[in-house]
Amino acid sequence: MEAGTRTLLLSPTPIQRSPKRPLRRRFGPTFPRFNIRAQNSGSDYRGPKPKTNLVADWVSNNDDAARSLPIYAGGVSLLAVLFNRTVSDIALVADASSSQSRADLLTLGLAVTNILAGLVWLSIRPKSISKVNPKGVECRRMHSDLPTTLVSELLWAWESLSNATCCRSLVIVYGGRNILQIGFAAASSNGDGEAVAVDADKLIQGSLYRGVMKSGVQSYLANLALYPGKSELPFLPSNTQAVILQPLGDKGIAIIGGDTIRGFTASDQAWISLIGEKLDATLARCVDNLPLSQDPVLK
């Protein structure tokens, strides 16, 4: 027994080890792998799915019928009360002290209320908001002495706003100068097809400009037709629906006109504020060295 034990201790069985694999160095960040086939196949998706509200979908697809339902319900209730009164051998006019008469009066009141509610729903409808075509001419005016880098940034801001939002007009006044007027503008009364130029001095003296510069925050005129201050913006098309007044530091303002009432969302307003900060930083470096001439040149 001792010899067998000694033999096991002296000659252990060799342990089989797997061959070493060469280590591979990974350069750069590693990204998780996605199974494209699993993503594209809808049958394999096991995550949460959006819930459907059948009632809300039916109401949105049958607006007229949904608004008429109280009228039908009230009419059917009224006929049911009269029919019940007829078949129950009770006179149409009876003592109001009886329980049947009091129940019928309450039912008649509810039926008439339903009918009136249906008539109100049919007469009052939400006004549909849609885009409008600006009544004016297209223009592209810039200050004559802007550097190339500033021109590129201004055009980038215009293309970004016009493509991503309902912006159709953009005017930038900075340092008492009309820096940019692009997009749609009001047509000149001379009938020559030219756009109304921006009078920077008159704009600066207006209440809209002074109010925005005093507060230092963005002002959103969601429905321009309701604001009397729209007379201070004669260079915008007459049917401009919404306007954002974005201050550019303490030296200028960006006027953004849209073609839809309440067309600028909260995210659009926040994004425009960031664009205003970027334009202010660039304009502060370039505009201070410009000459005092305020006559824009068409480029």
Helix-strand blueprint:
Blueprint: H1 2-10, H2 36-40, H3 54-61, H4 63-87, H5 99-123, E1 137-143, H6 148-164, E2 167-174, E3 177-185, H7 200-205, H8 207-215, E4 219-221, E5 242-248, E6 252-258, H9 266-286, E7 296-298
Antiparallel strand pairs: 1-3, 1-7, 2-3, 2-6, 4-5, 5-6
Structure description:
A seven-stranded antiparallel β-sheet has the order 4-5-6-2-3-1-7, with helices on both faces. With 299 residues, the chain is α+β, with helices and mostly antiparallel strands. The protein contains nine helices and seven strands, in the order αααααβαββααβββαβ. A hairpin with a 2-residue loop joins strand 2 (167-174) and strand 3 (177-185). 42% of the residues lie in helices and 15% in strands. Mean pLDDT is 80; it is low at 1-13, 25-32 and 36-42. The chain is elongated.
How would you summarize this macromolecular structure in one to three sentences?
With 299 residues, the protein is α+β, with helices and mostly antiparallel strands. It has helices at 2-10, 36-40, 54-61, 63-87, 99-123, 148-164, 200-205, 207-215, 266-286, and strands at 137-143, 167-174, 177-185, 219-221, 242-248, 252-258, 296-298.
